[in-house]
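We close this part of the discussion by returning to an individual protein. Part of our work consisted of pairing the sequence of a single chain with a tokenised description of its backbone. No coordinates are needed to read the tokens, only the vocabulary itself. The amino acid sequence and the backbone structure tokens for this protein are reproduced below:
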Amino acid sequence: MKLVTVKGQTKGKERKTLERMRQEQEEDPILAKIGNQLRVSGIAKLSTKYQIYQGLLFKRTGKSRVWKLCIPESMTRELIKEHYEYYGHYGAHETVHLLRESCTFTAMRRTYSGWTPQNRHIYQQVPVKFRVQNRLETIVEFMRTEMPVEDQEMIEKSMKETAKYQDNFEVYIQTLISQALDSNFLTEIFQEQDDYFLSNVKCVDEITEERKGRLLRVAQWKPSLSNSVGTWPCFNFITDLPADEKTGKLCVACDKAPVAVRVQMYGQPYNSTTLEGCQPDPKVASQKDFLVCAVCAGRVKLYNKVAHQKYLMYIECAKRVADKRLSDPKKDTTVILNELLADEAWLNQLFKTVRTSWAEIDKLEHQAKQTVPSSNKT
């Protein structure tokens, strides 16, 4: 087994790095759980994939079955930065590639890749300003809005706390992949009361429901908007509004701030348990159009992510299943399932997407608690 080192480090600093790596592995929710299981019971199934060597956790990966050091999430950026400073003349892409020869990252996706429709889920749209654009090159400026340090710390704290649900989430995704492969799967496991799948789905659903409640308490919307966003899985924002739709008018959701955005809901309502299409509540059927303020528009986007989390994750799974079937129509469903579950980068990205939404709600709740109404000040 190969211990990771940073080129150019002194022996003393190298020892400190490895000692800190041991400590961080023991504190990392995912790695600590695996390490404890190995130490206590030496589970045979685990020992074929993970081993402890010189107090450090290693994972066997890839077709070559090489043992790679498990890097805790808390040290990922630092390790890449230090190696880049040494290998920088190769470029960032090559630095990460060199690290992956001896390391595996618990919460890292492939950062450098060409854009294709198949990997669009790993990209996020960001605001930019075009500085140079011609036939030879395009140079843009990233319009970054810096997040206050306290908010960033709150996000990181929440992300770390929810990392412990990775095992539950992977079974949750396994359930949704199975539903994409067999449209009766969810109905059948509920009819059979299959505890393995249902207990893990329930775990993730309960965390999401709790976050939904927190967001609604912060937003204090009128029921018409929250019911509509919870019913319709899709929406459009229209910001270019005529003057008569926004001048002198207040947000219909909070009744506090001026109108800035028109939100239009659409899509197929569905049963949240089985994901089968259904008819909407008659009271909500005509409630699809709302004039809201900028703050409520942002919260509509966030609430949509948690209210339709299972549906949105199912759509991602269904896309990947469709891609697999398109590339090989004769491929067995079990093979497709196993291939998708073996795609750690994809699973980690889905888990990060869900946890980021949970963390954003935790941040909003924290901000709301920190805001003291002027009438209560002494």
In short: Residues 344-370 form the longest helix (27 residues). The two ends are 63 Å apart (CA to CA).
